[in-house]
Amino acid sequence: MTVTRKRGQGQRLLRLIRLLQQDAFDSTTLADSLACTQQEIQRDLRLLRSEGWNVQETSRRPKRYFLAPESVGEPDPVRAVITHALLRMLHHHAPTPSRVYHRAALELSEALPEKLRAGVPLHEPQGDTPRILETLAAAWCWGQAVEFTYRKPGGEPRKGVGDIAYMEINRTNLDWYVFIRRRGQDKVKTFHLSRFTDAVRRQDDFSPDLSFDPRCELDGAWGIIGGHDSCVITLRFPPEALAWVTHRRWPGQVTSSLDGEHYRLTLRAPLNHQQLPVEVLAWIRGWGPRVEVISPDWVRALWLAEAQALLDRYSQK
């Protein structure tokens, strides 16, 4: 694809292409950035389309323009279905109405067959991308330190400076989590995106290489808690639960076997900063009376104490 025109226009077209590849902009912003008129921007957009560039525009006014990546051809059915599932998860997950989420979904949907593309609703969002998400994402992608203010539940906002090691969506609640090593500390810690109250990139302060392997840190996690601190929990399920517990391999599963008519399952459960397997305990609670905690004794005691507290609080009502 070429943009061989007059030298001045050709240089402007090349700069326009770079802008459209970076983000979506309205014609006023593009004209200001390129020191030309909006009419010239519209002519340039028509020219790019005529030469084969995939210039897309948003449906809501003022229209914003961007370049969608070129399709690499019709995907095979398995890839298409996986892409469709990822798009649906992205749609459900978006923490706020976000033009960046909308644009990412629109670009990915271009690779889907028409039948599957029709099943991905891509309504124009009413809001904009949260600034903190944009700031943290840019800091991670460009390897820059970040100054941030973070508020834990029930606590006061605390300022800090750190380096981003990773960003991950919790498989349980589909919320963003950010893994940061504070300056002056050795451990990478987990931060919930929604609890950041402010974040600013240090554009001239580059992060060191951090040793963070998501396969080791997160693949065994039930939600977002991973790492090296864990305990082994043994559970026993009665016959009526077998159809719902035996059909898959669970995160951190060590062993499984039939115990008469019961099913015995052993899991390696990550511990939080209070040395509690909170994410696995939440899953255990969901089984109600259809599971028994066999070991370790301290986890069994926690499980029984919660059951007793539930009975004491509500049995007399």
Automatic annotation (TrEMBL):
Query: The WCX domain covers which part of the protein?
Result: 232-311
Record-given protein name: DNA-binding transcriptional regulator
What GO molecular function terms would the record report?
Answer: DNA binding
Tell me which residues make up the WYL domain.
Answer: 132-199
Keywords for the protein's UniProt record, in alphabetical order: DNA-binding
Pfam family for this entry, one: WCX
